Amino acid sequence: MKDSRSGRADAWAFGTAPSSRRPRRRGRGTLASLLILIAFAGGQASLIAVADQPVIESETTDDATAEATTSGETLPPEEAATEEVATEEVATEEVATEEVATEKNVSAEEPSAEDEAAGTVAAEEPAEATGDGSSDESAAGSTTEAAAVDTPGPPSGDGVQPVFVKGNPDCLDVMAADDFLFEHKTGVPRDATISLTSGALSGTLVVAVNENAETFRFTLTGDFVAAGLIVKGGSNANFYDYRPDGNDADTGLHAPVNPSNGKFYGLSHISFCLMEDVPPPPTPVIDVEKSCPDSVDAGAAIEYTITVENTGDEALVDVSVDDTLLGDITGDFAPALSLGLAVGATATATVTHTPAPGVGSVTNTVTATGTGAVSDTDDSDTASCETQITPPGPAIQIVKGGAPELVHRGDTITYQFEVTNIGDVELFDVDLTDARCDAGTIDPGADVDTSLAVDEVWHFTCTHLVTQADPDPIPNTATVRGDTVEGEGGDEVTDQDSFQVDIIHPGISIVKTVSDDTVPEGTVVTYTYLVTNTGDTTLFDISVNDDVIGPIGTIDSLAVGASTTLTGTFVVGDSPTINIGTASGNDILGRTVTDEDDAVVTPIAGSGGGPGCCIGGGGGGTGGTPFTGSEVGLWSLLAAALTLIGGLTLWGTRRRLDGPTV
CA–CA separation, 389 vs 300, rounded Å? Predict the structure, then answer.
């Protein structure tokens, strides 16, 4: 980026070609110089404008002022006075000057009519003594008023307060070179859409001007944002500072306020100090919400609904949810949190908790944690809710369990019962009934006595022998009652709880087959053992054995309906063989089930002869062909044919020997 103060070529918008700062016209600068000389020569005090707002001193040097102060040109006081009166047409002792000669930084641009109207105004001051001790009677008794000055005016639409800057600054005058990438300077602002480029970066700048209000707004899209904005009008400028993050749009931007009319100066030009729009890194944000009822009755379960949402700008992985009452409940959410949580996605779980007896209220807190898939940064959130437990009055609770939960018919179930006074009144005549308990088997524990005090717990057990008449599974509901008064009267309270036992029926089958059931003696055959779980529970440690061959193999487990095949080989002897295969397995309760099946192999008769013993014979010799019953017909036909041929031959021979009959 070239420095605008050293003649750089800026790509200005609105068709305004870049140029160097223009010096003020010599005539006007000379007039100001003459007025200064007249003021000093006549003993008048010099006029200095003082700003009442913070000011950034621009590094810009007024070329006209420099020329006037270094040229050494001086006009006689009479000529200066004549030129002043002729130019300003002032008949009174007050003289309105266009600019203050002692101001440090003056705009290098040619002032507009508004600029001239906003110039400093000096009132008369008492005449000072001249060099010879005399005084100027025409100036006697006069006073000097401070000149009105420019002010920055109100903030922009985004609330950015402009800083007043003297003169005609550029971006390097108000910020460091590292604070911006390049400067884009417009001519007199008009509505326009401007394409911006810098290296591989590109963007679009849109400017809309409100000419009546002398304000404008801008919007930047693409790769750039504004680090700052300089708005020039009148002799000075406003600087809007958007550092460090920059801004892509703002409204109500304006030049300084003209003190002569309280309005903004007309827009002269705008300098956009542009920087690259670097998006912030992704931020993982997880949000958790938890709801529960305000109150529940004593002994009732509290239902919690928990919702987890990804409110960040990157996907979340390794999401987990922990509940202070229930522990890790990550697996209770749908959709499953193990799949992660996309941006904006939610997952919900509904869980319950039953407070312990005597608890007045329950406060529950849940914490959700997730890791950003890109940033690898963790985020967590917590949520709590409280539920009041309604005072119960008289109340009783029963909780039923049992063992085992899986049985065979013929097994015995042991049921357990826990009875608690969850109310605030002592209970009497407490009685437990259960239709599934076998007669006379309900056994009160050592803690059971004549009355059930508040928060006291009693225990009971009973047994049941599973019969063929029992349904599968076996449902069971127990009932407990109590009374607030011993004997007759009082308020009765009751409660029920259920427990279910499943009856299992293990089963196994084996089907045994042989590769060929009729073979020559000495042939190797293969047996196949197909083992199937025909029951309704998984089988374990299945073994397969053959009463002739021995152990065939084992199967670790076999699910309901599943099958597995094992094989074994056998050398056929000289007599038929019946092999029995047996499969045995155990269910989860340790009960063993078995099944067996057999296969028969028959050797072919006469197949044991040596090699080449007879035509078609097999024998045990190498290359022999076994003799089978299917060859008997063939040999019979062959013998009949040979007999016929022999008979015919004999008959023919006799005819020839006997000769013809006379």
Answer: 9
Per-residue model confidence as pLDDT tens digits over 124-149: 333 333 333 333 433 333 344 456 78
How many CB atoms are closer than 10 A to CB 389?
21
**Would you state the pLDDT for residue 358?**
74
CA distance 310 to 353: 26
What six digits make up the tokens of 576? 């038929």
Q: Which residue has the tokens 């042989």?
A: 514
Question: At residue 215, what are phi and psi to the nearest 5 degrees?
Answer: -125, 170
Please tell me whether residue 531 adopts helix, strand or coil conformation.
Answer: strand
Concatenated DSSP letters of 426-491? -EEEEEEEETTSPTT--EE-TT--SEE-TT-EEEEEEEEE--TTS-SSEEEEEEEEEESSSSSSS-
Which of 68, 172, 61, 150 shows the shortest CA–CA distance to 107?
61
Dihedral sign, CA of 124, 126, 131, 133? Answer: positive
Question: Beta strand 163-165 with 55-56: parallel, antiparallel or unpaired?
Answer: parallel
Q: How confident is the model at residue 457 (pLDDT cuts 50, 70, 90)?
A: very high
The answer to whether the beta carbons of residues 358 and 391 sit under 8 Å apart is: no
Q: For the chain, which domains are there?
A: 4-139 (no CATH), 163-276 (2.60.40), 286-390 (2.60.40.10), 397-501 (2.60.40.1530), 508-603 (2.60.40.10)
What is the C-alpha separation between 537 and 508, in angstroms, rounded?
Answer: 10
Q: Give the model confidence (pLDDT) of 215-274 as tens digits.
A: 999 999 999 999 999 999 999 999 999 999 999 999 999 999 999 999 999 999 999 999
pLDDT at 326 over 70: yes
Annotate 70-81 with DSSP letters as a single string: HH-----HHHHH
SS3 158: coil
Measured CA to CA, the distance from residue 217 to residue 247 in angstroms comes to 12
- Rounded CA-CA distance 463/442 in Å is 7
* Main-chain dihedrals φ then ψ at residue 364, nearest 5 degrees: -125, 135
Q: pLDDT tens across 525-562, in order?
A: 999 999 999 999 999 999 999 999 999 999 999 999 99
- Cα separations in angstroms, 138 against 32, 44, 94, 121: 22, 11, 12, 19
350: left (phi over 0), alpha (psi -120 to 50) or beta: beta
Query: Does residue 596 have a pLDDT over 90?
Result: yes
Both structure tokens of 513: 């087959």
Strand (E) or helix (H) holding 114: helix 113-117
